[in-house]
Amino acid sequence: MENYKLLGRAGEGAHGFVFKAKDLRNENEVALKKIAINPDLEIPNNVMREILALRVLKYAHIVKLTEVLSVGSYVVLAMEYLPWSLYEVIKDKNTTLNLAQIKTYSKMILKGLHYMHYHHIMHRDLKPSNLLIGRKGILKIADFGLARIYDHEKKRLYSHQVATRWYRSPELLYGSRTYNKSVDMWSVGCIIAEMIERKPLFPGETDIEQLAIVLGTLGTPTSDNWPGLTQLPDYNKISFSHSEPKKWSVIIPDADYITLNLLSKILIYDQNKRCTAKEALQDRFFREKPFPCRISQLPKLDEPNEPTWNFDEFDEFLGHMNDEPKPELL
To answer: Greatest CA separation found in the chain?
Structure first.
């Protein structure tokens, strides 16, 4: 930790605090993600998955991991500092977000996702707040705590308790444990729709309400449009009244035909027919006017406020620097 100067607490993730710091070796700003661990036990799976995924994935649209440290009873991940997220862009009422800009953000997300899937890694928690944006406007996928290696040749069972509810695919809502990388594409479809409408597409307050909203929008699924539906673990536990699918022009009234055509290929029940990241990148959506804008033409956000301080946390963090040093993990 002697190589870093702490500048303040920049946020709080699902598994620990995030501090902004300066790397004294090169003057770069970094984000230090502090994750508590039990020193008597092995490093938690979610921490190991994030470390291993980020060490494999070296790409322009995936956040860069620079160092992994052990500091007392914490693991500290040092990553490039990206001051904003797509969530802030969407929620900023003073920021316009036109279709050309939406296409550029979507393209960066899909490029990062295609690279990830090419390396057989599912993210499993894509959402606007996990899509970080640097000062030059480059978007990068972050927060790999739920990432998992997948292999189509081996029928592994995965936890269905993944992905933030609003971006969770219907097979997960029905308890599937044999899903594939298309769960990430469902999330991407929800995110693109959210950029257009500036509000979540399926904002359920509970898992049951979430599923009810999806079914009420896309219509009651059948074994024809969703093979294997009746074999899903929670299929017989939940019953909903029949509903007809709504037209996409009604679901997202502010989108044009080409945009709706892409979303209709992503947000479908059958995970094996769901559009892949590679296919989406080749879609007319990116080849028709308005074309994706340049990075320099993306929304400009105000410089974020200085990181906040909680001196108890600061003292606690620094206090571990005096602990007996441990070798760098991995």
So the answer is: 64
pLDDT for 37 = 75
Tell me which residues of the chain have a pLDDT lower than 50. 311, 320-330
What's residue 301's pLDDT? Answer: 85
Q: What is the pLDDT of residue 153?
A: 62
Domain shared by 50 and 140, yes or no: no
Helix (H, G, I), strand (E, B) or coil at 292: coil
Q: What is the pLDDT of residue 323?
A: 43
Q: Which residue in the list 23, 125, 184, 283 is annotated as catalytic? A: 125
Res 151: pLDDT: 73
Whether residue 310 sits in one domain with residue 287: no
Residue 226 lies in a domain: yes
Question: Whole-angstrom Cα distance, residue 277 to residue 283?
Answer: 10
Domain enclosing residue 94, as ranges: 84-297
313 in the same domain as 260: no
171 and 42 housed in the same domain: no
Question: Are 195 and 88 in contact, with CB atoms under 8 Å apart?
Answer: no
144 and 188 assigned to the same domain: yes
- Give yes or no: 92 in active site: no
Strands (E), 95-176: 121-122, 131-133, 139-141, 148-149
- Contact (CB, 8 A) for 320 and 73: yes
The answer to whether residue 327 sits within a structural domain is: no
pLDDT in tens, 246-298: 999 999 999 999 999 999 999 999 999 999 999 999 999 999 999 999 999 99
- CATH number of the domain enclosing 155: 1.10.510.10
- State residue 79 phi and psi, 5-degree precision: -130, 160
Q: Which residue has the tokens 């904002």?
A: 203
In a domain, 310, yes or no: yes
- Radius of gyration (C-alpha) of the chain in whole angstroms: 21
Q: Are residues 193 and 284 in the same domain?
A: yes
Q: Which amino acid is at 105?
A: Y
Number of domains in the chain: 2
Q: Note the pLDDT tens digit of each residue in 129-150.
A: 999 999 999 999 998 888 888 8
- Tell me the backbone φ, ψ of residue 143, rounded to 5 degrees: 60, 80
Nearest C-alpha neighbor of 182 from the set 226, 223, 128: 226
